[in-house]
Amino acid sequence: MDTAGFYAAEGTAYHEIAELCVMHGLDPADFVGLTMRADGHDIPITEDVPRWLERGLERIAQLSEGAELQCESRVDLSAVLGKGEGGRLDIGIINRTRRLIVVFDWKFGAGVPVQASWKDEAGAEHPNEQLALYGWGFAESAMRRADKLCGDEWTIRLIIEQPRAQGGGGEYDLSYFALEEEIERIGFEAAKTNDPNAPRIAGHVQCKFCKAKLASNGGCKAHSDLVLSLADLTDDDIAQAQEDDVYPPLPRVPELSLERLAYIHSCSDMLSHFLNDVQGYLLDRAKKGEKVPGMKMVRGRAGHRKYKEGVAEDAAAVLVEELGEKAYQPQEIISPAQAEKLLGKEKYSKIKQFVTQDQGGIALVSVHSRGEALRPTEDLLTDDDVI
Asked: Under a CB-based contact definition with an 8 Å cutoff, are residues 150 and 94 in contact?
């Protein structure tokens, strides 16, 4: 299954529901139980979807009261990014009374949180580039001669609603003049990409969905060098370790700074993907008949045994004859999660008193993630606890 394609199709379906609710005043709960077809995938609409949409729809309703609202508007970004470049913003709102332009963007990805702004190394805050471009393009097209109609007294509000990702979403306000300065910076950076010899700048964020890093696509040295640098290794280190037939010298964890360790931890997904890509690439070469030094192909563990199609009843007859009632598994009550799905939230409340749930494990996440920070264990100790 193409999981990346399925997740993208989920986003398409949820965007469509949000658009219908905004434009026609529909209730997202009315879509629960339906299956929507999007990008070649069937997307079931569960009870979670209305909950994910609720806050964003309320915010759109608040901001669009007494204002002009446009949905799925095409914005032309040719002047900034080059001929033919543009995009489609989810929601655009113009409130002439408050001199406010709003660009609202739904993001339904659950993996990578996306904020409305970010800070550079000097601590200066900047808007999310995608929304900044959409805000500028929307103002240029919807306001017409926006350079005269806007001015510093107009506020551009950029909103990202990302209900499924901890730490995702947020709002960021800036003046129209400040937005123009950001657009000039973005345009300057975008122009660099037209250079065929432009350097590739690897990072765990920008490399996450880039297919150029995959071995099947030729690989990317910048990405490989970044992975090695996380362990303070170079190509020469790997070559020397290979020649000596030893593991490469990895640094001791306590010798690394907390800042370094935190960065390595944030790149854990990138590291695992890199190793999986190496394994898959080597296996593919071996299947094509190439000899992989020091390795061989073997058959993995056998799968779970199961009854052949069409003969399960024959097997059951033999088992009943030999084992009697032991041939069947005992009846088991469905889980609380299954019960909630079948009963719905209102009826589920009748059995909620009988349900318990373990606390989630403790994990390290970005400071931008939602959820209250836990106190360190030592802070929870009283003087009486210390021996």
From this structure: no
Quick one: 178 and 226 in the same domain? no
Q: Is residue 218 part of a domain?
A: yes
- Res 1: pLDDT: 44
Report which secondary-structure segment, H or E, holds 88. strand 86-95
Closest CA to 31 of 339, 121, 19: 19
Range(s) of the domain holding residue 39: 1-65
- For residues 39 and 43, give the distance between their C-alpha atoms in angstroms, rounded to a whole number: 10
User: Confidence class of residue 143 from pLDDT cuts 50, 70 and 90?
Assistant: low
Q: Does any domain span residue 320? A: no
* Beta-carbon contacts of residue 111 (< 8 Å; ≥ 6 apart): 165
pLDDT band at 158 (very low <50, low <70, confident <90, very high): very high
- Residue at 301 is within a domain: no
Question: What is the DSSP secondary structure assignment for residue 214, as one 8-state letter?
Answer: S
pLDDT in tens, 234-271: 888 888 888 888 888 888 888 888 888 888 887 888 88
Instruction: Please state, in angstroms and rounded to a whole number, the distance separating the CA atoms of residues 337 and 9.
Output: 25
Structure tokens at 337: 């999660």
